[in-house]
Amino acid sequence: MDPTTIVPVIFSGGSGQRLWPVSREQYPKQLINLVSERSMLQETVARLHDDRFGDPLVVCNDEHRFIIAEQLREIGVTPQAIILEPVGRNTAPAAALAALMIVDRDPDAIMLVAPSDHAIDDKDHFLDAVDIAATAAERGMLVTFGVAPDHPATGYGYIKQGGPLDDVEGCFAIDQFTEKPDAETATKYLVTGDYSWNSGIFVFAAARYLEILDDIQPDIISACRLAMADGRDDLDFFRPDDGAFESCPADSIDFAIMESTTAGAVVPVDMGWNDLGSWTAMWRISEKDANGNVQIGDVITEDVKGSYLRSEGPLVAAVGVEDILVIATMDAVLVVSKNAVERVRDVVEKLKTQGRTEHLAHPRVYRPWGWYQTLDLGERFRVKHLMVKAGQGLSLQAHEHRAEHWVVVTGTARVTRDEEIITLNEDESTYLPAGIKHRLENTTKKPLSVIEVQSGSYLGEDDIVRFEDVYGRD
Fold first, then answer.
1. CA distance linking residue 177 with residue 257, whole number of Å
2. Would you tell me how many other CB atoms lie within 10 Å of the CB of residue 340?
3. Sign of CA dihedral 470, 44, 282, 298
4. Contact predicate 287/268, CB 8 Å
5. Closest by Cα among 306, 342, 44 to 32
6. How far is it, in rounded angstroms, from Cα 138 to Cα 286?
């Protein structure tokens, strides 16, 4: 690898609670098409895909691994690795896992660490800033990008810019780094004009990052070294050792490194940055009508001002309201005023404590083979729509408590029933009693659409025993 090549390290974790109900734990905001026809993850990877960059390395959790791999395939990008965090330990350990793998392949590599859920409107200015930051990183600096604040946000780190770095035009020492101040302090920072937001995007030499961790965060780096040393490959993924990584302290790059290191630097850049951390942020960056409204999907308004109205299912009609946010999905509707968007998290927590599931998944649940969507659910029955992608199939499995009927709507299905293999064409069906080993496959080049009717005493997704699975699931 060319030593000047920059390795993009993409973090794709978190659940995006503040963008509920569109963002869910099993399908969070970075995997959703929020601002374009591509997901936030795809936009991030595409932004970091030219001659200055090597193949990306993605750090994510186990739950999202197949969705992420598929989204990368859709845009024609082959990652050099997808590292699966056994548990969430924040960004400092995640970057350490990536740095250890990168240094093993190229001791001189520069890495660019970027969240997968940020919007950047001005790619040219961003890439100019990357070039400046890479030059500083080659001189041993840990560089972040500074964004001019336009309101006293308490959810960002603030950077006070120091003097310019020698021989690196456009890059400055960090005089002070403060992670997420309170509202009063944030207001003071905004008034002085001396501070910028920390964008959460970092550029540094992988070896230099590990060196600084050794110096000031030895517990983090020792746990990560052990986790990588005892890790293993799993299909197209790498799994660090569970026990070693679980023992790692949880901390952000901001807290663990940037607040205390003397090697911190900042490149101020106007790149149209937004971390899309709330529905108010979505309203800010979206195109508005003459009344300041954003309308997405099936929406009708009458005498509405300054509002964000989004429907991914039912008709949303709003009359005589101002500065509100209405987001409707197939199974939930959120109504919140602009000045209360931070409290959407409280709603998500209440869903958890009440034992509900609307914070976990959408009605349409994605799997490596395709997706399923529950159409109806009642006492002792569930009706699902299954879509199996071309060339894919479900695991060979059995259920203890439920029987299933499969009806092919479109396409051709290959069905295993114990030792029997049958082919089902459109409008044909089969019955699978409880306990029978079965598998649904699509061996054609077109999608397969199936209606599944379940019946039985227990219909939970955990009533499954897998005998064979090409995706490595238990």
1. 10
2. 12
3. negative
4. no
5. 44
6. 37
The 10s digit of each residue's pLDDT in 276-297 is 989 999 999 999 999 999 999 9
Judged by DSSP in three states, 369 sits in coil
pLDDT for 104 equals 96
Low-confidence spans in the chain with pLDDT less than 50 = 1-3
Spatial distance between the Cα atoms of 286 and 36, rounded to a whole number of angstroms: 11
CA dist 341 to 17, 193, 292, Å?
A: 11, 26, 18
- Going along the chain from its start, the domains and CATH numbers come out as 6-274 (3.90.550.10), 279-352 (no CATH), 364-468 (2.60.120.10)
pLDDT digits (tens, 9 = 90+) for 436-455: 999 999 999 999 999 999 99
pLDDT digits 0-9 by tens, 156-188: 889 999 999 998 999 999 998 887 888 899 999
**What residues have CB less than 8 Å from 108, skipping those under 6 apart?**
3, 205, 207
Relative orientation angle of helices 206-216 and 91-105, to the nearest 10 degrees? 130
pTM of the entire predicted model: 0.89
pLDDT tens digits along 296-316? 999 999 999 999 999 999 999
Closest CA to 77 of 95, 99, 54: 54
217-253 CB burial, b ≥16 within 10 A, e <16: beebbbbbbbbbeebeeeeebbbbbeebbeebeebbb
Q: Give the residues across from 81 on adjacent strands.
A: 57
